Amino acid sequence: MHTFNEQKVAQLNELLKNSPKIVIVAHKSPDGDSIGSSIGLYHYLKKKGFTVEICHPDPSPSFLHWIYGVEEIVNYEDSSSQVQEIISNSDVVFCLDFNDFSRVGNGIKPLLQESTAKKIMIDHHLNPSDEFDLQFSEIESCSTAQLIYDLIDALGDIDLLDENIGEPLYCGIMTDSGSFRFPSTTPHTHEVIAGLMKAGVKNHKVHENVFDTNTLDRLRLRGYAISEKLEILDEYQTAIISLSKADLKKFNYVKGDTEGLVNVALSISGIKKSIFLKEGDGIIKISFRSKGSDNPVNVMANEYFQGGGHANASGGMWSGSLEEAIQKVKKVIPEFCK
Amino acid sequence: MHTFNEQKVAQLNELLKNSPKIVIVAHKSPDGDSIGSSIGLYHYLKKKGFTVEICHPDPSPSFLHWIYGVEEIVNYEDSSSQVQEIISNSDVVFCLDFNDFSRVGNGIKPLLQESTAKKIMIDHHLNPSDEFDLQFSEIESCSTAQLIYDLIDALGDIDLLDENIGEPLYCGIMTDSGSFRFPSTTPHTHEVIAGLMKAGVKNHKVHENVFDTNTLDRLRLRGYAISEKLEILDEYQTAIISLSKADLKKFNYVKGDTEGLVNVALSISGIKKSIFLKEGDGIIKISFRSKGSDNPVNVMANEYFQGGGHANASGGMWSGSLEEAIQKVKKVIPEFCK
Q: Domain with B161 in it: what CATH number?
């Protein structure tokens, strides 16, 4: 089912033969895919008999703490010297879910640059750099976790799959494909999921663990944002949600509580752009989302809000008051709604 | 991939050979699966050259009006004599997504009973009755739409699949499996979805059409319900949401606006039961949801609220004020939390 170049797979096989000590690294601000693919690969390589460690730039978010093996991740923020030692002693570094050394942050980046270990990249992001010794880059793949499955398949080890390996991979695919919703989801994605479930993965357990972790404060904050702070600009098919520091404090905001809120406003029938503004310390963080290939938001984020990103999902910021930021958004939006 | 009894499939093939006029009937209060499987089967049979009509008890909900072919459905509520004529002139009636004639309502039920046409049931609900001439009952299937796919496969027609046939089937499977979340989702479900996507179904189009149809009022009502009307009974791991007639009026409530709200409260970490009370005309409608096989809510619904249903999803009612209903729930909940 996989499409990997056979020669590269043979190279990988050769590399692994002489590499007792393996490290898995992934990008900063870990998400379901970077953690899922890291832990899935970890359990697979352990089962093959390798010495494996996972080093991430920062701690795992709490909504992924249920994954079996997550406690094995050593993170640079908490244990910099340990990460330094592990990477400097490694024979091979798997670089998962990123395409450029800069994505692992200022702590781990020099460690990768100085290390004599072979760096194997497995990733699905656009424009991979050439800093790696071996590249498995498939930009059509919905997730890196799907590529880990493909690689296990390519190495002839699909029979080794079990719940420990498969569950984090399912989590990575599910979160990065928007629960199989995004256009990046292909027939092959569903074939991979079928394979993971045959190996023992219980889908409802993953969905429940990832999605049913709301706190009362989190739900109430989101409810309040939608019922009280959502504004529609009919003429521009745009929804705006804004939350002040006082709003956040009222609901005991913790990081992650407003994750995905910008997409809720995009679910309103007829709405093509959704913009979420959140007041931080001396800065307003702004998320932009849009629908349609002819409706980019990254240009607006870049031109007026010191940001950028994907055409349909961008970020930016504003140095000033929340009210000013909202006014600026309203002022420039007509330029981008033709 | 299908598991149908070959003899039954041969019987069906035989029946269809001599049946120029086919009618498709599904249950009252149509949902994604009853409509998706009806329209998927309709397009397939039309492509095979049959004369086909779809007769449903009541109109399709608006969130499914985008499906190609939905306007072909003749519903009894609006066109009773037309439905009567169609069914009395038919050779074969496909009975989809129900297992007992009583499920089609008092209008269509006698028409099925009096008809001399062969009734073919395709369904996944428990305890099928023996009123049908031919039964394809698979209670393990996540949806009837999945069974339609299996039947097309069993009839050797998988090559006939196209976007028109596949899209409503995808919709039926997706809605009845909770977007592939429920335990009823199997590896085979994902294999079927892969097959549908290979036939041209665009997953993101279906997800967008089904889920991104919020109105501003609907979103605001739900936000208000969560931020202002959600109460947690910590001791009983229970969440209660209540909406009065005044609340509903404030947000211009229309049918469907509070659909699924009870499940949002169930997504709070640690919550095992969720109860939603909605004031209607002289009656309080109550929805009960729970998690876990050892945590049924249908007993409570049955004993105190004139209702019942599934162990984890039940309904009931209260004749009295909203405040009385809430007090009654709080009074009896300790009995069911041991």
A: 3.90.1640.10
